[in-house]
Amino acid sequence: MTPEQLEEYVSARMDRQTILNRPTPPMLWAVIDESVLFRPVGEDSVMAAQLKHLAEAGERPDIALQVLPAQARTTTGVSGGFVIAQAHRGMLNAAYVESAGTGQVADRPDEVAVLALRYETIRVEALSQRESLKLIKETITRWT
User: What is the chain's alpha carbon radius of gyration, rounded to the nearest angstrom?
Assistant: First the structure.
């Protein structure tokens, strides 16, 4: 990846985050794998700042953040990340599925239903929101 491509990628991700700062933001429920708390990406100070940002986001009333612990027995989410967008009444739900280097939008009800079930299977194994935030905050000290 060239520096220009990386900058474009980061810029696009930052732009997408602005939706969370609207006057009436959407609800966001996320489950992250515990390994992301410990896998170094960048300098220690970068990791600490990223985890601090994650902890702050998890304190918001419109964001539910949970950590899937390493000892969880589910392998449902190992094949890649995905996002499910639940639409307003009368509109179809959609999902975005990521794999290495590519992504695909799914809007067929049966495909979205399978992903929703996959999400619930992962979420049931995750730590509670309170436990997850505690773990994230404790992990920040590792990087400072």
Answer: 16
Specify the pTM. Answer: 0.83
Q: Are 98 and 34 in contact (CB under 8 A)?
A: no
- Residue pLDDT tens, the chain, 144 long: 788 988 888 888 888 888 889 998 888 999 999 999 999 988 999 999 999 999 999 999 999 999 999 998 766 766 778 888 887 776 778 998 887 777 888 888 999 999 999 899 899 999 999 999 999 999 999 999
CA end-to-end distance (rounded Å), the chain: 29
Residues 87 and 93 sit within 8 Å (Cβ to Cβ): yes
β-sheet bridge partners, residue 32: 67
How far is residue 105's CA from residue 66's CA, in Å, rounded to a whole number?
Answer: 24
